[in-house]
Design a protein that fits this description.
By secondary structure, the protein is an alpha/beta fold. Helices cover 44% and strands 10% of the residues.
Length: 518
């Protein structure tokens, strides 16, 4: 029977979600939505030592900003669901709140001979480790060492059974079968085989906190939540044999999910995994949102750095996946249609910060003047400028092609709102020469006396005609005027600038440069 597609994103709240984590969530989401299935969030917080306050809320907010909205696990207010309902039948979705579920599965594995109770104290394990190191070996809890350690396989039952009640520091370990080939299939990597002799007896459950470890909780929950595909980062590939064996040990092979391990995101230059330090060094964000860590350092987020969520989603989608065509711009809807695991590459995806900016620039150009004006107005307000909305919109329309981020509008066009406080020395030396500025001041008089409609369209032609008919050097004269209006010799066309700032302000700026430089 064809099963309904159900995939999950299962983050551990151990810190802010790296952009690679967002990509994992995105691919899961695209996979589910393409098949009309469910995208579930499950919080894997069984390792209390690594718990970071605020991380869970951060993850949910980041996904929400990207438009990666879960069907199950998180409610409309962005809260992880704790009470079961029709929409969220598997609640609670936080593993720490599901603790009562796992013990019986751990016991079941012991009963079926797939696991055992281990009573070694921390000191005993340290001693065993030290003894191995002294011989230049590494200690591994496995088939060769387990019989010399303290567990329910090496001890008589009459001895170990009472320890289950009298001690609170025992664990349940998986009994890795000997010399067995585990044959696995990965949707990206294909067929993989490994011999169990290279694997250890992982801890599955701990009496000390009465919690499962990642492996047990992950398999039990994927089974109970009827997950059909597990799409996760490559760092989990080494755990796959154990996960296969756990499905077999429980007798759940028939409903075992299919697996896809996604390639790593790599540094822009050199080799290795993209790390938060690369971002600091090269000045690009590695996280979706800003994150203030406990030492008071802020990690940069795409959102706060001015990226549009659509651009971020688009650039993430292309890191490791390709559509098989030249198309680079995809809306979420288009991604849902086009995405395919078959086109996810096996090898790591090099992150290119310039390409990330390119994406934002493309999305900025696709935005309406209204949307951009709405985003720019608060930036102006923060500079103490309360300009008329329609005027700002006109300016935005003129400059948007030159910007990568909305915040660039200010750098590109601050002179349309405030007079230049100074004049770039290099440009002044080059253009503000008497033979040029005497002509430029005559052109200024022409502009002030112009009695046609004061718009770029009606002024530009006569203005240029006036300069040309006098055979004055167009470039030099215009650059003198630009120096007066912009404070530098670069910027918009003179007709654009004067019609936006108006005749009065134009006259003021001409007087100001005369007073300073003539
Ligand atoms: N909790 C694991 C993580 O933090 C999930 C791995 C998985 O998806 O199985 O990435």
């Amino acid at each position: 029977m064809e099963r309904r597609t159900r995939v999950r994103f299962a983050p551990s709240p151990t810190g802010p979600l790296h952009m690679g984590g967002v990509r994992t969530a995105l691919y899961n989401y695209l996979f589910a939505k393409q098949r009309g299935g469910d995208f579930i969030i499950r919080i894997e917080d069984t390792d209390s030592n690594r718990f970071v306050p605020g991380a869970e809320a951060y993850i949910i907010e980041a996904l929400n900003w990207c438009g990666i909205i879960p069907d199950e696990g998180v409610d409309g207010n962005g809260k992880v669901v704790e009470e079961a309902s029709e929409k969220h039948p598997h609640a609670p979705y936080r593993q720490s709140q599901r603790r009562g579920i796992y013990r019986k599965y751990a016991d079941q594995l012991v009963e079926s001979g797939n696991a055992y109770y281990a009573f070694d104290t921390a000191e005993e394990l340290n001693e065993a480790r030290a003894a191995c190191e002294a011989k230049g070996e590494t200690f591994i809890y496995n088939q060769t060492t387990r019989m010399s350690l303290r567990n329910s396989l090496s001890m008589p039952e009459s001895e170990w059974r009472p320890l289950l009640d009298s001690r609170t520091d025992w664990t349940v370990r998986f009994k890795m079968p000997e010399n067995t080939v585990v044959a696995m299939d990965d949707m990206i990597r294909g067929h993989v085989e490994i011999n169990t002799d290279t694997l250890d007896d992982k801890v599955l459950w701990k009496r000390a906190d009465e919690l499962p470890t990642y492996h047990l909780a992950n398999i039990v929950d994927d089974h109970l939540m009827e997950i059909t595909e597990v799409i996760r980062g490559e760092e989990w590939l080494p755990s796959l044999p154990l996960h296969y064996l756990l499905y077999q040990a429980f007798g759940w092979q028939d409903t075992m999910p299919r697996f896809a391990h996604l390639p790593l995101l790599l540094k822009p230059v050199g080799n290795g995994k993209l790390s938060k330090r690369d971002g600091d060094k090269m000045g690009f964000p590695v996280f979706p949102l800003n994150w203030l860590n406990s030492e008071g350092e802020t990690y940069h987020g795409y959102r706060e750095d001015g990226y549009f969520p659509e651009a971020f989603v688009n650039l993430l989608a292309m890191l490791g996946w390709n559509p098989g065509t030249e198309q680079e711009i995809f809306s979420m809807k288009e991604l849902i249609e086009a995405f395919s695991i078959d086109h996810v590459s096996k090898s790591g995806a090099k992150f290119n910060p310039d390409k990330a900016k390119w994406y934002n620039k493309e999305y900025l150009r696709m935005k309406s003047d209204e949307e951009l004006t709405d985003a720019f107005m608060p930036i102006l307000a923060s500079k103490g400028i309360n300009e008329d909305y329609d005027k700002v919109k006109k300016i935005v329309a003129l400059i948007k092609e030159r910007a990568t981020f909305v915040a660039d509008f200010w750098d590109i066009a601050s002179y349309l709102f405030v007079a230049p406080a100074e004049y770039a020395e290099k440009d002044a030396n080059k253009f503000w020469k008497e033979e040029n500025y005497t002509l430029a001041l005559k052109v200024a008089d022409f502009i002030l006396a112009f009695d046609g409609e004061f718009t770029k369209e009606s002024l530009e032609g006569p203005l240029e005609e006036y300069i040309r008919s006098n055979e004055w050097p167009m470039g030099k004269v215009m650059n003198c005027l630009r120096l007066a209006l912009v404070g530098a010799s670069s910027g918009l066309g003179i007709a654009d600038i004067v019609t936006i700032i108006g005749k009065e302000e134009f006259a003021r700026r001409i007087e100001a440069i005369k007073a300073k430089l003539c």
